[in-house]
Amino acid sequence: MGFIRIPAEQLDGGLPFPAEAALPRNALLRSLPADEFARLSPLLERVPLVPRRVLQHAGLPIEHLFFIEEGLVSVLAKVDERNAAEVWLIGRDGVVGGTVVLGGETSDLTHFVQIGGSALRLSVEDLNRLAPELPCLAQALKGYLHVSLMQSSQSAACSLRHALLPRLARWLLMAHDRSDLDRLSVTQDLLARSLGVRRPTVSCAFKDLEQRGIFAKDRGVIRIKDRPSLERIACRCYRIMRAQRDKWEMSKAKRKVLIALSAFCAAAEAELLAG
pTM surpassing 0.90? Predict the structure, then answer.
């Protein structure tokens, strides 16, 4: 599929997460209680996500987690010796390598940078060492993996039952949701591979959407101009997947409030006992 294969030694050299940064841009890390993130942040390194680079090869040991801050990563399942199909997308809502919390030492899937950006990298060694001190991180990772499983299952059903145009609209909406970018740096060739169709088929669908004024494209960049129309074209699978994600986001927010309330009550109780 034309991946850039970067030697392992070139993956080093990330920048430490700046101490003055109040919050990370990754939604999983933002959901952590302040004390857990303070424990974790000195171990995070900001690294660039280079388009067409493989962050995690199938069959190789998982050495790092990558909490996406900007950009998009395609998760690919191999279908034969030459081809792979996309099973889900990871944006700033998620993480590459999170299956280590389930005991997986290697990945059966390839994680490929679709749109460049940046990520916060954490070594598996550091994660394992701090695991007893980071229960909320483990819980957040397991929740994210559950949602990813549900969404990849829905994506598989969508690919079997729905026409290309609604599927293309769903993919663009999901990419927009996970990146917050109105301008998506993605080529028709990569989109065809992601959707499992031939490039001329994607070109015809693109022409239809462009003529309706829903988006404009120029040199590998797609600019979404009319999102409401794109939502009307998308199949029901998009709304199901969006509802799954929104439900999970709400559960994260509630959990964070409960943790903060518990900490407040514990502090108040300690103050009363001390007085």
Answer: no
